[in-house]
Structures are given as structure tokens and as C-alpha cells.
Amino acid sequence: MTWSTREIAELAGTSLRAVRHYHEVGLLAEPARRANGYKQYGVEHLVRLLRIKRLADLGFSLPQIADTLDDRNHPEQALRTLDAELAATIERLQRARLELATIIDRRAPADLPVAMAPAQAAALTESDRSVMLLMSRFMGPRKLTAYGELLRDLPADPTDGEFDRLPADSGEEVRADLAERMAPHVRRIREAHPGLVGPDDDAPRGAQVLAETTSAAMRELYNPAQVDVLVRLAALLRAPH
After folding, report:
1. Both 135 and 232 in a single domain?
2. Residue 235, Cβ neighbours under 10 Å: how many?
3. For position 102, what pLDDT does the model report?
4. In this structure, are 124 and 47 located in the same domain?
């Protein structure tokens, strides 16, 4: 008994495209053709295809399948390797489910790590979200935790919103005044969350990369007046008071 490519794919529970791909990578030998040019698959092809599908369903990669199919020894090492890979995948998926549950519960942005998800996500500007996303990638665990704690209980300040609405052509007096009025609030935040300051020796890519990336983000994501306010604010925070 013989079958066409479409028929053997249906019998094996796979797709026509998969069968053709198995031919291309050498997993499945090309069958003889009928007089009309159509492929003619036999039982040996179906058995081979079923074995390929079985291993693929278990999670074997195509190279692993190729190594296993023609080896008459029990593939213990390959199975153990696959089991370890699956265990790591399950762990990753479980973490993802926990994060999804938190994101749903808090109605937090899905594009930000849970540790950086603020309580009032809707109030964030697009620039703020972009900066937070970059920081979460390059910041060390200590500051990441500290920022997360701050964002979940961010205190209000009289200057809230002024920085976001600051026009790019704001005069020096306006910028200096805003930085002065923002400084006390930021100092109180730092006192309440000491983990926000200090060395970045636990940054995964190093303190310099974190500093350079954060600086570049600020310059590109905020307008010139806002950047100037941030520079002035940093100077005020460094000065004794």
C-alpha cells in the first residue's frame, strides 16, 4: 500500500510542510515516484515519520532526532538532557504565570518587570515607562528592589505633573525654580528608601554601562528643558543642605 505526501502527513498527524522539511534536512528519505511524477510513500516511510513525530512531540530538536533515530542504543543521555531542558522551561513558564497573575491583579503594564510595576501605572508618561524599562534591564538587584518598593507607594508632591508638562523652551528661571522645588521631595524619598543611592557594584553589566545608558535615555526621551531640570536637581542633591 502506498500513499501520497498529503495522505502520509495526515496518517502521521503532521503537516505537509513538516514532511517536506524532513526531506530537506535529511530525516526522511525521498520515496520513489509514480509514473505521473507524484511521490509514493510506503509503510517504512510512515513508520519513520511516526518515529520522528514521536520524538518531536517529546521535545527533541531536529539534530537530536537525527542522532537518536539511527542509534540502536537507548538514548539515555539525550533523554536526560531533554528532561533538564524541559524542567528549565517549566520553571520559566511558572515564573511567567506568577508574573502574569501579579500584572492582572495590579493592572500593571505588561511591558515592565513586575518589580518595577507602579501602583498608578496609568499616570506614567511614555518617557517614564521607557526609562524604567531600560533601568530594569541594567540596574542591579538592590536598586531594582528599592525602586519597586518606591513605585508601589509613591508619595505625592506639589510639583507632580509640572516636570511632565514643562515646555522645551522654558526659560532658565522656570527650570531653576522647578529643580529647587523638586529637591526636597526627592531628598525625602531617598531618606525613606536608602537603597536608591549607593554604588552600583551589583549592576549586571557594570556601573558604567548603567550610568551611560541612563544618561543617554534621559537625553533622548526628555526635552532639553526637562534634561536641564534633571541636571540641576542632581547638583542640588549632591550639595550639602
Report:
1. yes
2. 11
3. 80
4. no
- pLDDT for the residue 106: 74
For residue 139, what is the DSSP state? Answer: S
Q: Which residues contact 7 (CB under 8 A, 6 or more apart)?
A: 41
The answer to whether the beta carbons of residues 214 and 138 sit under 8 Å apart is yes
Question: At 1, is the pLDDT very low, low, confident or very high (cuts 50, 70, 90)?
Answer: confident
CA distance 94 to 100: 10
Residue 111: inside a domain: no
- Same domain (yes/no): 214, 122: yes
The C-alpha cell that represents 210 in the structure block: 548603567
**For residue 113, is it within any domain?**
no
Co-location of 20 and 88 in the same domain: no
Single-letter amino acid code for the residue at 167: P
Give tens-digit pLDDT for 106-147: 777 777 777 776 655 556 778 888 888 888 888 888 888 888
End-to-end CA distance of the chain: 91
Three-state SS for the chain is: CCECHHHHHHHHCCCHHHHHHHHHCCCCCCCEECCCCCEEECHHHHHHHHHHHHHHHHCCCHHHHHHHHCCCCCCHHHHHHHHHHHHHHHHHHHHHHHHHHHHHHHCCCCCCCHHHCCCCHHHCCHHHHHHHHHHHHHCCHHHHHHHHHHHHCCCCCCCCCHHHHCCCCCCHHHHHHHHHHHHHHHHHHHHHCHHHCCCCCCCCCCHHHHHHHHHHHHHHHCCHHHHHHHHHHHHHHHCCC
CA distance 219 to 193: 26
